[in-house]
Design goal:
It contains 14 helices and 17 strands. By secondary structure, the chain is of the alpha/beta class. The longest helix is centred in the middle third of the chain and has 105 residues.
């Protein structure tokens, strides 16, 4: 509850702080507070909410500035006219990293964000409060300025890093618009990144294991091929031995053939002698002819055997040649596989080196980008100096707009002030309900603890006696009623928590009226949340009837639309004297070939007199007594509806009530 009250007040306190600081500035008495003035005011205000264990210097409170920003340096110098922690302030400028020395507060300009990690390590354990400007890494910062879409400046607080420096922070710093960084969320994000990296490492390890398996398989195949080659070599050796044996047999046959040839020559010689002696007798001639024919048959058979041996030798030589080719092919395959493995390893090394090179280049590009940004800032500053006359006119326009915004903001703060007491009362009821239920739970827990203590006294030796005592104690304490009472009180606490949660969720939408982000919102739920905020004003005398139709979600600023609904409902409540009824109706309509959400808010109040009906949307027009209204409620409502490209009209009859009708487009153009 206290945090929400701080949120309600922090904008007013923050604007008042800036106003006081700027009014005290001697050099810029009539100009608007720029970013540097606002940051300077925040540095001064933040310093009031911290306690240092040891100061950097006993006679002065030191504020260091690292970086080159002439506007910011000049603005921070204004703090030297003030007192912090009972000491005069001295602002020191550090143009380079090696110039930094011990200070109580060190402010790092935006153009030095790329060196925050080095600065953080340099000042670690020196009891120095580090203030940064729009630094993205929330884990390193202590106090970090942030800019929203409206160029409003707030700051983030990393309490863990501040505690490590033994600097004590006051909770009241949240009134200045600060928000604590969710360390658990940062830790979870880091854990997610680590898990992703671990997953990548596991994937790479699995890939390496897969490659190792493939390499082992290839080695096994190579070993198998080597074994096959050895087996083929042994087969070739056997075949070579067979060929040598065949050669030996061939030589033997050649010797036999040579011997037969010599015998043939001897036969021819004998034939010649027989021819010479042919005349001696036909009988001898026939016998010799028969012997010669037989010898010729033997020669033919020997020649056939020789031809067969030559054919067998030729076939063996072909088989040997084919096997030699296969061996050469296996050797070439092995060389190709080995070469492919070497190329794969070279590819991996090349990819790793390329990755490292890319990382170095990315770092260089980042540094160059930051240098380009610095040059861009310098060019923008030079360009601003050339457009002084144009800026003077724009300053006048912005001053008028700022005045209008301040008036609108004051209306918002007034609405918040009116709601605070009622909301506090609404939250107090369920909290009291929870508190009384907790007291009942304490009594029940004491009874249950007595029974548990008895159970703890049970041992194998006394189990029967103790069980009897436990049963007697249960009867004495009415155990069944205790258990049913526990369930009843637990349900009561849950009801109180749900009611508190409902109120807080309704408050969350309204308190973020400064949020410029559009969201897809169901207007039925937004109306219900707004009614809950006004429950304390309705209770007991005004009944709210709702007729919600089936409507689609629309893109809008939830806080602004809730502010508009609140203003209309608040006026309706004030218009009802005594008891009455407020009726809220929503429906989707089609008009001019465009879909709209129509919201009708009808009350049974006193109505709007005709003479003032044309003025209710005018700024500063009010029918309330002096001091009870700003006259900006309906003007703000009209502005919000038209900002969302919608329309707002009303019908009223004096003494018979008023009906406001709001039409919001489903799809904005």
């Amino acid at each position: 509850m206290f945090t929400n009250l701080f949120s309600i007040q922090r904008y007013g306190i923050f604007l008042a702080l800036i106003g006081l600081f700027c009014s005290a500035s001697a050099t810029l008495p009539s100009e608007k507070p720029n970013d540097a003035n606002i940051k300077t005011a925040l540095v001064y205000a933040i310093s009031q909410h911290f306690e240092w264990p040891v100061f950097a210097q006993t006679d002065s409170f030191l504020i260091g500035v690292y970086g080159t920003d002439a506007v910011m340096d000049q603005s921070l110098k204004q703090i030297e006219k003030r007192i912090i922690k009972g000491r005069p302030v001295k602002v020191l400028s550090f143009p380079e990293l090696h110039n930094i020395r011990k200070t109580d507060i060190l402010f790092v300009n935006y153009n030095r964000n790329y060196e925050i990690d080095k600065v953080y390590r340099l000042i670690k354990s020196t009891n120095t409060l580090l203030i940064t400007d729009r630094y993205e890494d929330q884990q390193t910062v202590m106090i970090n300025f942030v800019h929203d879409g409206n160029n409003k400046i707030s700051f983030e607080i990393n309490k863990r890093n501040i505690d490590e420096e033994q600097i004590i922070m006051s909770p009241k710093i949240l009134l200045l618009g600060g928000t604590e960084i969710d360390i658990r969320e940062l830790y979870l994000q880091t854990e997610k990144v680590l898990e992703l990296e671990k997953t990548r490492v596991i994937q790479i390890e699995n890939q390496l294991k897969s490659k190792e398996k493939e390499l082992n398989l290839l080695n096994e195949q190579i070993d198998s091929l080597e074994n096959n080659i050895q087996l083929q070599n042994s087969v070739i050796q056997q075949q070579q031995d067979g060929i040598n044996l065949q050669k030996k047999r061939l030589l033997t046959l050649q010797d036999s053939l040579h011997h037969i040839s010599r015998q043939t020559e001897s036969m021819h010689q004998l034939l010649d002698s027989l021819n010479q002696s042919l005349l001696h007798g036909n009988s001898e001639k026939n016998a010799l002819d028969q012997q010669l024919a037989e010898r010729n048959k033997e020669v033919d058979m020997a020649n056939q055997k020789l031809d067969l041996l030559y054919g067998s030798i030729t076939q063996k030589e072909k088989i040997l040649h084919q096997q030699v080719k296969e061996i050469r092919y296996l050797r070439r395959s092995r060389q190709i596989i080995f070469t492919a493995l070497i190329l794969f390893l070279i590819l991996i090394v090349t990819v790793l080196r390329s990755y490292q090179t890319i990382r170095r280049k990315n770092h260089q590009i980042k540094i160059q980008s930051e240098l380009v940004l610095e040059q861009k800032d310098e060019l923008l500053q030079a360009n601003e100096e050339l457009k002084v006359q144009k800026e003077a006119l724009q300053d006048t326009l912005e001053a008028l707009q700022r005045t209008q915004d301040q008036l609108i903001e004051s209306e918002k703060m007034a609405s918040l002030g009116q709601l605070s007491a009622g909301i506090a009362h609404e939250i107090n009821n369920p909290i009291n309900f929870i508190s009384s239920s907790i007291e009942g739970l304490k009594v029940i827990m004491n009874d249950l603890l007595q029974i548990i203590d008895k159970y703890n006294e049970v041992t194998p030796e006394n189990i029967l006696n103790k069980l009897s005592e436990i049963e007697h104690l249960k009867q004495k304490l009415n155990y069944e009623e205790v258990v049913s009472g526990f369930t009843l009180l637990a349900n009561s606490i849950k009801t109180g928590v749900d009611r508190t949660k409902e109120i807080v969720n309704s408050m969350r939408v309204f308190y973020h009226t400064g949020n410029t982000d559009q969201k897809q919102i169901n207007l039925n739920k937004l109306l219900s949340s707004t009614v809950i905020l006004l429950h304390n004003q309705l209770k007991g005398r005004i009944q709210v009837q709702t007729h919600y139709g089936e409507i689609p979600k629309i893109a809008c600023h939830p806080g602004m639309i809730s502010q508009a609904f609140l203003n209309i409902l608040d006026n309706a409540i004030q218009a009802i004297n005594g008891t009455g009824t407020i009726t809220i109706t929503t429906q989707k309509i089609l008009r001019k070939e465009r879909e709209y959400i129509q919201i009708d808010i009808e009350d049974t109040g006193s109505g709007i007199p005709p003479e003032i009906a044309g003025k209710i949307f005018d700024p500063f027009f009010t029918t309330k007594e002096v001091g009870k209204g700003t006259g900006l409620g309906m003007y703000l409502t009209y502005s919000i509806i038209h900002k969302h490209q919608g329309e707002i009209t009303f019908e009223s009859e004096s003494g018979a009530g008023t009906t406001f009708q709001i039409n919001l487009p489903v799809q904005a153009t």
